[in-house]
Specification:
The complex is a heterotrimer of chains A (about 475), B (about 250) and C (about 200). Helix content of chain A is about 50%, strand content about 10%. With about 475 residues, chain A is α/β, with parallel strands linked by helices. In chain A, α2 (about 20-40) packs antiparallel against α12 (about 250-260) and α3 (about 45-60) crosses α12 (about 250-260). Chain B is α/β, with parallel strands linked by helices and about 250 residues long. Chain B folds into 2 domains: about 1-115, no CATH class; about 125-240, 3-Layer(aba) Sandwich (Rossmann fold). Chain B has helices at about 10-15, 15-30, 45-50, 55-65, 75-85, 95-100, 105-115, 135-140, 155-160, 185, 190-205, 215-230, 235-240; strands at about 1-5, 30-35, 70-75, 105, 125-130, 165, 210, 235. In chain B, α11 packs across α12. The longest helix of chain B has 17 residues, at about 190-205. By secondary structure, chain C is of the alpha/beta class. Chain C has one domain (about 5-195): Rossmann fold (3-Layer(aba) Sandwich). Chain C is built from 5 helices and 12 strands. In chain C, a hairpin with a 4-residue loop joins β5 (about 110) and β6 (about 115-120). Classes of the chains: A alpha/beta (about 475), B alpha/beta (about 250), C alpha/beta (about 200). At the A-B interface, α1, α2, α17, α18 and α19 of A face α1, α2, α3, α4 and α8 of B. β9 of chain A pairs antiparallel with β9 (about 160-165) of chain C, so a sheet runs across the interface.
Chain lengths: ~475, ~250, ~200
């Protein structure tokens, strides 16, 4: 990942220098949110479905160790190899070892946010393995040497003209052709050859069924299946939280996933992989990478219920106007902001503050994660752990002293209003972020408290 | 019924008109309402910034000021939500718990406690309702567009009682304005962009007055409107419902 | 301690105490007009539905319409006069790379989302419905169920090594949310609906 020292506010500030582009980004994602709204209103019992999804995931978290063992045993009985990785490093090493022991130098990969989280592509490249991302959006950001800005729509930050230019540079398409149909067809032809010549395919996992040992991968493009069915080795990476108890529970999750993500009734392909194809092998890498730690954080554990639909990003007014890259994390948006501090609280201390706590994310979440409440709670944890900026600490301390005393509050209020009236330049200046693009309120002569004293003081009151 | 009027600090200092309208409206409706003069702030600015552990002083002061009332009413959904969710006390937890259950935002107090069915008043203008998030999603003053559930709107129910008032539909019925407490300065660029977009929605739909049950959102949008030199005005819902506003 | 045991130990220590096993019931007959709903939904996501009454009609349709490429394959013996009949795992999946049309059958479809359920038992190769340029599926109207819960009631008893729901042609909207049919899988999906 292109890392930067800048925090969300600074990166969002850069993103906002091009207002028409922000509008375009906002409107594109709002359109996805509207598609989601239409889809969920079309089927009966949407809120009951969310509740069912939430309860199944609660049950998963409470029985996770047992379900993991059950899944492992069943997967092995199905002839699938199961590997365990305690962190990103071990995950990457397991994948590399599997590839090297089979003499594989080139692989195709379908979308897996877990491999983004683990920085797998960089690791494999450094070790001489060529990774081709086959999801069109990921293919595009890979050409641009970027990372996905959205977990479902990886190149939603890119304009078609920019994509046309990338294809012109890398794939030799005519300059200036930015037609999505043409560009998609170009990628299709280019990648078809790749699919046919790769010996190993890597996919993510949407759901892993403890009862049967099968796992389900959902795509619209068919790229996971094209990869897996044409390769000799299929490696599927999954976080420990992807487990669901029974096959029938897929009925709930497949109903909510695509509707929440894009407003489709279901993804084009929902593929259930149980046994390896004759003559081929299947490997599952089960990854912890901080998840068991998050499971132990009572206030934050239910972030692990996430099914990666991206609905919270599409609805988030801050995400839509700051872009995924301003979060500087594999998973952006509201859900990324409650997952990231678990892994590195200092590095991601800014993310829980990149929100107005409006609560829209919580309402769209198909498994009812209390995202905005967790953002609030992470703020408390981050400050208590000493990751608040010094200036903010000082300001909050001063504010607390004033607001805890009725007398100093009244004095400070009066002084403040007086200063705004007599010396407006003291607050109306470039150092005041409020004033940069907003006027301050017109200062009244009296506070309400002063007015009340004058106008209601005669009334005898018995409290 | 003794009602304590809880006036948020920034309303007290910058928007006394909204607090006066709230007081007068409650008085007109026959409520015995008093304003405890030693109140300051609910502590939300600190808490939302991650400094909830510093709000002990504000909490004790709030309990001291408001314990004796049957109801506590405030013209701000956001501050009410903070009290409802986060007021706590090691010394007086029973009193804190009681307050959490008897604090009301003005609109919900009118519709749910007083259960008023009519109001005298006239406001012959085109009005856009800004659904402040904490009032809407936190206190459920109106249905949220994300949910598949029957629609309702307590602010709209009250505004419909006012003669001549026309409520204009918006393209995005309940998107956040971007105020967000300290977010408005910490994330200035996004905050302002959100505010500009919200304001543009009202302008596009022919609104003359943006109203809301929360002045923080209105203060933010007013700041943007005035910088833009827009004729569009903001007005707290209490000032419309009180019927004697001087705008 | 192995990573496996470390992870399982940490999970066991940190997982919350209990959460009841959820029971829910979504099987209510919410959808009376199963065929109509299926047709509307599948059409809405880019598929084509051709209502037919006999295999002859399907044969004629294939002869008249599947003519944009030379190779049409099927796993349905009754269509062997209009398409090359595939046999189970007869060749490597790579040998399918030039298939223009694949005609397969299904025993289960879902009205609410337009998906058909296909398992490898009915396919000569798992890759077939993905690698072909155009996919066609023969479906009996009586095999349509209302929703995914009903579908899993049927699937639950099934044993398969691989199975997939297919809902329409492969698609992407990754470029500025413009919907394009034909990403990596088939560019079109036709369902012959046996009424």
């Amino acid at each position: 990942m292109k890392t930067t020292d800048k925090d969300h506010a600074a990166l969002a500030n850069e993103f906002n220098k091009d207002a028409p582009r922000v509008d375009w980004h906002d409107e594109t994602l709002w359109w996805v949110r509207q598609k989601r709204d239409n889809a969920v209103k079309k089927i009966p019992g949407w809120e009951e479905l969310r509740e069912a999804g939430s309860q199944i995931k609660n049950n998963v978290l409470a029985n996770l160790s047992g379900y993991l063992k059950q899944f492992e045993a069943n997967a092995q009985a199905n002839g699938v190899h199961v590997h365990w990785a305690i962190d990103a490093k071990e995950h990457n090493e397991i994948v590399l070892e599997l590839l090297q022991s089979n003499g594989v130098k080139k692989i195709v990969k379908s979308k897996s946010m877990l491999t983004e989280e683990c920085n797998l592509n960089e690791y494999l490249n450094l070790n001489g393995v060529d990774v081709i991302d086959t999801d069109l959006g990921e293919f595009i950001v890979q050409l641009a040497n970027e990372h996905p800005s959205h977990i479902v729509l990886p190149c939603i930050h890119k304009k078609k003209e920019e994509i046309g230019e990338l294809f012109h540079q890398h794939l030799g398409t005519p300059a200036g052709n930015a037609d999505p149909v043409f560009l998609t067809e170009t990628a299709r032809r280019h990648l078809r050859e790749t699919f046919l010549t790769r010996k190993a395919a890597l996919t993510g996992v949407n759901f892993a069924v403890a009862e049967t040992g099968e796992f389900v991968v959902c795509t619209n493009e068919g790229n996971a299946d094209m990869g897996a069915h044409l390769a000799d080795i299929h490696i599927a990476s999954m976080g420990i939280e992807k487990i669901i108890p029974k096959r029938k529970h897929l009925g709930v999750f497949l109903r909510v996933l695509a509707r929440s993500a894009t407003g489709q009734p279901v993804t084009t392909y929902s593929s259930h992989f149980k046994t390896p194809r004759p003559g081929a092998s299947t490997h599952i890498v089960i990854v912890d990478n901080g998840r068991s730690k998050q499971l132990g954080r009572e206030d934050f554990r239910n972030s692990l219920k996430c099914i990666r639909c991206g609905a919270c990003m599409n609805t988030c007014p801050v995400y839509r106007r700051s872009g995924g890259h301003s979060y500087n994390n594999a998973i952006a948006g509201p859900i990324g902001s409650i997952l990231a501090p678990n892994l590195d609280m200092k590095k991601h201390a800014d993310l829980p503050f990149a929100s107005t706590l409006c609560g829209s994310c919580t309402n769209v979440c198909p498994v009812k994660i209390d995202i905005h409440d967790q953002l609030y709670k992470w703020r408390q944890v981050i400050v208590k752990s000493g990751h608040a900026p010094v200036a903010k600490k000082a300001a909050m301390g001063a504010m607390t002293r004033v607001l805890s005393s009725p007398v100093s509050y009244k004095v400070a209020g009066k002084l403040g209003r007086l200063m705004m009236k007599r010396a407006p330049f003291a607050v109306n200046n470039q150092f005041n972020p409020w004033y940069k693009q907003r006027e301050l309120p017109v200062v009244p002569e009296n506070s309400f408290g002063e007015w009340y004293k004058k106008n209601r003081n005669n009334k005898p009151k018995d409290i | 019924m003794k009602v304590g009027l809880f006036v948020p600090c920034y309303v007290d200092q910058f928007y006394p008109g909204a607090a006066i309208a709230t007081l007068e409206l409650l008085e007109k409706l026959g409520v015995d309402v008093q304003y405890p003069s030693r109140q300051t702030c609910c502590g939300q600015p600190m808490a939302n910034s991650g400094f909830e552990h510093l709000t002990g002083g504000c909490n004790e002061l709030f309990i001291e000021n408001f314990s004796a009332f049957d109801y506590i009413v405030c013209p701000s959904g956001s501050c009410v939500l903070h009290i409802k969710h986060h007021l706590q006390s090691d010394k007086n937890e029973a009193k804190a718990a009681a307050i959490r259950n008897k604090v009301y935002e003005l609109v919900e107090f009118l519709t749910d406690v007083l259960k008023i069915t009519n109001l005298k008043g006239s406001f012959p203008h085109k009005v856009g309702i800004h659904q402040s998030c904490h009032g809407q999603r936190g206190l459920q003053l109106s249905q949220m567009t994300e949910l598949v559930a029957p629609s309702f709107s307590k602010p709209r129910y009250l505004l419909d009682m006012i003669a001549g008032l026309e409520i204009m539909p918006l393209d995005r019925a309940d998107e956040c304005c971007g105020f967000g407490g300290t977010f408005c300065v910490a994330e200035e660029a996004v905050s302002v962009k959100m505010g500009k977009d919200r304001v543009a929605d009202h302008i596009r739909n022919g609104v003359e007055y943006i109203t809301a049950a929360d002045l923080s959102c209105l203060m933010h949008m007013e700041g943007i409107l005035r910088r833009q030199g827009s004729p569009l005005k903001v007005i707290h819902i209490a000032e419309i419902l009180n019927g004697e506003c001087t705008v | 301690m192995s990573s496996r045991n470390k992870i399982l130990t940490a999970v066991a220590e940190n997982q919350p105490r209990t959460a009841p096993f959820p029971e829910f019931e979504f099987l209510d007959a919410e959808c009376i007009y199963l065929s109509e709903t299926f047709i509307n939904v599948l059409t809405g996501i880019g598929g084509t539905v051709i209502p037919v009454e006999t295999m002859i009609e399907i044969q004629n349709y294939i002869l008249q319409n599947f003519n944009q490429g030379p190779r049409t394959v099927t796993n349905i013996p009754a269509l062997n006069n209009v398409a090359e009949l595939m046999h189970q795992s007869s060749t490597s999946p790579h040998a399918l790379s030039d298939v223009d049309y694949a005609v397969i059958d299904t025993r289960l479809a879902v009205a609410e989302n337009g998906a058909v359920w296909v398992t490898e038992k009915g396919l000569s190769d798992r890759a077939l419905p993905f690698i072909c340029q155009h996919l066609a599926v023969v479906l009996n109207a009586g095999d349509i169920v209302s929703n995914m819960h009903a579908a899993y009631e049927v699937i639950n008893a099934d044993d398969y090594g691989y199975g997939t729901f297919i809902a329409g042609p492969s698609k992407t909207a990754d470029i500025e949310q413009s919907l394009v049919l034909g990403a990596h899988g088939p560019k079109s999906m036709t369902v012959f609906l046996m009424m």
